């Protein structure tokens, strides 16, 4: 009998898992409770993969030998409860990809903030050094699909806590943990400890042949490490003190010390600016040295890297008002980093689906830098309550065009408008990219 693999969820990761499962000889069925994108349907049909949309047929799903669950499906979903009750093995798409990745090297990056930037920078360094590396995972391209269609000797993967929740044997050769701040608590029973444990699963299968790169200045990481015995090679990085083996910044110099290779460069040469990006750059630099990339290539790549769309992306200056798209800021901590780097009076756009946010974290920065808040969401009560005594003007809007017009109306020459919502986008938009693109379009129409 063929191994029956059911894929729950037909997004990028689900389609990738279906293609890889089919290629490896599994009996694959994909089930999506919503509607599939036309392009994804075409791929399934072209590859002879059975699927359903708009429903989950219990008999088929519960008849599986194994289930690949989309990271977007919460455990409290009725279908998931039935699956768990029956004891069917559930894995994530990255676990399936890992099973068939051969002897490729994996660099996996996780953390509450900075994952995408650090993943893209690490990949850029690999390409600069002439390595045949794929950029996969949460950053937009399915790891499983890459393994199925175009396997590579190196994978640089952005990994979310949701993807780590359903691993079994997944083990990166190099794991990066950037930071841990309260995020996605709605998925972790509002217990921060559950989320912390999820992030640390990135190293649970590592051995003495692997590396664990982490921020030594992050108290949450430090406190957790004090309770663990780890089997991997620790390579911390810090901006507060010198590190014997790992990386640190002293004054304006970044120093990386791993084995015999030592790299030093001025932070003024980094393409990415801001304190948080100094951490991201150190992490990527250390990862590069662990896989033997020469310091000249690291220096070159770190200096000429282009930052990501929707991440502190300058859009345009309209009559002296700068518009910045940081739509990827879907939690309060990301917004904190964006505000920290602002050096102009700021009109801040907040709002969307709140994931258990504590706006007190940004209250001091808002007081110091923000002259008005424009809400872009359906329910703004929590934002208004948090800032009504701090900011003189709070305006509510429910679409990108009205939002941008309201910002422009309160802005004066020399101000900046910052879209850094601290919330998920799904109340008004398809995703954070859609939110960022609609914002940019609205700016261009001014």
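Q: What amino acid sequence fits the structure above?
A:
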């Amino acid at each position: 009998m063929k191994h029956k693999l059911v894929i729950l969820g037909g997004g990028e990761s689900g389609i990738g898992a279906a293609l890889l499962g089919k290629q490896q000889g599994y009996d694959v069925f994909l089930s999506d409770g919503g509607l599939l994108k036309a392009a994804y349907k075409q791929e399934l049909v072209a590859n002879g993969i059975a699927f359903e949309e708009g429903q989950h047929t219990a008999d088929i799903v519960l008849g599986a030998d194994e289930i690949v669950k989309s990271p977007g499906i919460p455990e409290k979903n009725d279908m998931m409860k039935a699956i768990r009750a029956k004891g069917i093995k559930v894995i994530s798409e990255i676990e399936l990809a890992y099973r068939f990745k051969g002897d490729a090297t994996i660099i996996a990056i996780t953390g509450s903030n900075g994952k995408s930037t650090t993943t893209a920078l690490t990949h850029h360094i690999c390409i600069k050094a002439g390595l045949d590396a794929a950029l996969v995972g949460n950053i937009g391209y399915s790891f499983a699909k890459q393994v199925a269609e175009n396997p590579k000797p190196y994978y640089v993967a952005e990994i979310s806590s949701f993807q780590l929740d359903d691993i079994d044997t997944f083990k990166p050769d190099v794991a990066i943990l950037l930071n841990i701040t309260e995020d996605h608590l709605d998925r972790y029973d509002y217990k921060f400890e559950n989320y912390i444990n999820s992030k640390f699963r990135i190293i649970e299968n590592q051995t003495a042949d692997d590396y664990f790169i982490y921020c030594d200045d992050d108290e949450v990481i430090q406190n957790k490490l004090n309770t663990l015995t780890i089997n991997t090679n620790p390579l911390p990085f810090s901006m507060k003190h010198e590190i014997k083996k790992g990386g640190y910044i002293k004054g304006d110099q970044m120093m990386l010390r791993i084995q015999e290779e030592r790299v030093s460069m001025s932070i003024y040469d980094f393409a990415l600016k801001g304190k948080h990006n100094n951490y991201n750059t150190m992490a990527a630099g250390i990862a590069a040295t662990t896989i033997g990339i020469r310091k000249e290539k690291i220096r070159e790549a770190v200096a000429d890297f282009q930052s990501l769309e929707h991440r502190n992306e300058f859009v345009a200056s309209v009559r002296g008002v700068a518009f910045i798209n940081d739509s990827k800021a879907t939690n309060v901590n990301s917004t904190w980093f964006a505000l920290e780097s602002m050096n102009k009076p700021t009109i801040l756009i907040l709002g969307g689906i709140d994931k258990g946010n504590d706006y007190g974290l940004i209250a001091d920065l808002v007081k110091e830098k923000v002259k008005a808040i424009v809400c872009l969401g359906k329910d703004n009560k929590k934002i208004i309550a948090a800032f009504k005594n701090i900011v003189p003007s709070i305006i509510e809007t429910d679409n990108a065009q009205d939002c941008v017009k309201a910002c422009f109306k309160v802005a004066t020459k020399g101000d900046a408008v910052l879209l850094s919502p601290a919330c998920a986008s799904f109340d008004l938009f398809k995703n954070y990219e859609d939110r960022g693109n609609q914002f940019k379009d609205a700016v261009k129409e001014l």
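Q: And what stands out in the fold?
A: The longest helix spans residues 275-290.
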